[in-house]
Amino acid sequence: MELWPWLTAALLLALLLLQLSRSAKFYAKIGLYCVLCFTVSAVAVVVCLLRHGGRTVENMSIISWFIRSFKYLYGLRFEVKGRQKLEEDRPCVIISNHQSILDMMGLMEVLPDRCVQIAKRELLFLGPVGLIMYLGGVLFINRQRSRMAMTVISDVGERMVREKLKVWIYPEGTRNDNGDLLPFKKGAFYLAIQAQVPIIPVVYSSFSSFYNYKTKLFTPGTVKVEVLDAIPTAGLTIADVPELLDTCQQAMRTTFFHVSQLPQENGAPAGPDAQASQ
């Protein structure tokens, strides 16, 4: 029995499903995104090893170049305000909101020189993706062992000052698409105060107008990115962590609702767009 008629029929059926089914389109785009991540990571690993020979923050510029190309395939635009605030030649802690797997594109769109991320340790074992993160200098922490995580944070504080590194952290700790920000964890603020370096908040607008996992929406769209003014930590102590955390979160929430054009009522999102995202 010849396979070609069956393969042709299967291909035509798949194309028909993509035309008719919103869910099929969504999962096809997500599947392609995952394939791209693994394929591009494998290629970038070779480039990074040939260029720099091993693990170094300088590899992030190579990784960034590869990932930024994804936006053209998916029809995404990034409108960035205040980018120059990230380019100052000084160590700092950068914090941003965390919405979906697409955040990687947003991160690479504005990633400054000599900037590394702190990520959960599980990502290290994702084949070529974990390897390219390792080569890019990403710092992995075991969130299940808080004492070990704090030891890593302490080591990072000393290293970022010594090597003039910028460290990027998602203070929410996990992805969140509920139309608001989750409560922040304290690690980023301990790090900034320990190292006595400023915190620079970066806010991405809601993806809900073009990407929504629950409704299987994934279309071209525009992401507004706003880099807020640096918040100094000079002279602060560990006792100031709660106030610093609250200051940063309130500034980011206000900006998030503004750039996302979401109404805010009694500290929570309101209106049809917010309800849809929830």
TrEMBL record:
<keyword id="KW-0444">Lipid biosynthesis</keyword>
<comment type="pathway">
    <text>Phospholipid metabolism; CDP-diacylglycerol biosynthesis; CDP-diacylglycerol from sn-glycerol 3-phosphate: step 2/3.</text>
</comment>
<feature type="domain" description="Phospholipid/glycerol acyltransferase">
    <location>
        <begin position="92"/>
        <end position="207"/>
    </location>
</feature>
<keyword id="KW-0812">Transmembrane</keyword>
<dbReference type="InterPro" id="IPR002123">
    <property type="entry name" value="Plipid/glycerol_acylTrfase"/>
</dbReference>
<feature type="transmembrane region" description="Helical">
    <location>
        <begin position="33"/>
        <end position="50"/>
    </location>
</feature>
<keyword id="KW-0808">Transferase</keyword>
<dbReference type="InterPro" id="IPR004552">
    <property type="entry name" value="AGP_acyltrans"/>
</dbReference>
<keyword id="KW-0443">Lipid metabolism</keyword>
<keyword id="KW-1208">Phospholipid metabolism</keyword>
<dbReference type="Pfam" id="PF01553">
    <property type="entry name" value="Acyltransferase"/>
</dbReference>
<feature type="transmembrane region" description="Helical">
    <location>
        <begin position="123"/>
        <end position="141"/>
    </location>
</feature>
<protein>
    <recommendedName>
        <fullName>1-acyl-sn-glycerol-3-phosphate acyltransferase</fullName>
        <ecNumber>2.3.1.51</ecNumber>
    </recommendedName>
</protein>
<keyword id="KW-0472">Membrane</keyword>
<keyword id="KW-0012">Acyltransferase</keyword>
<keyword id="KW-0594">Phospholipid biosynthesis</keyword>
<dbReference type="GO" id="GO:0016746">
    <property type="term" value="F:acyltransferase activity"/>
</dbReference>
<feature type="signal peptide">
    <location>
        <begin position="1"/>
        <end position="23"/>
    </location>
</feature>
<keyword id="KW-1133">Transmembrane helix</keyword>
<comment type="similarity">
    <text>Belongs to the 1-acyl-sn-glycerol-3-phosphate acyltransferase family.</text>
</comment>
<keyword id="KW-0732">Signal</keyword>
<comment type="function">
    <text>Converts 1-acyl-sn-glycerol-3-phosphate (lysophosphatidic acid or LPA) into 1,2-diacyl-sn-glycerol-3-phosphate (phosphatidic acid or PA) by incorporating an acyl moiety at the sn-2 position of the glycerol backbone.</text>
</comment>
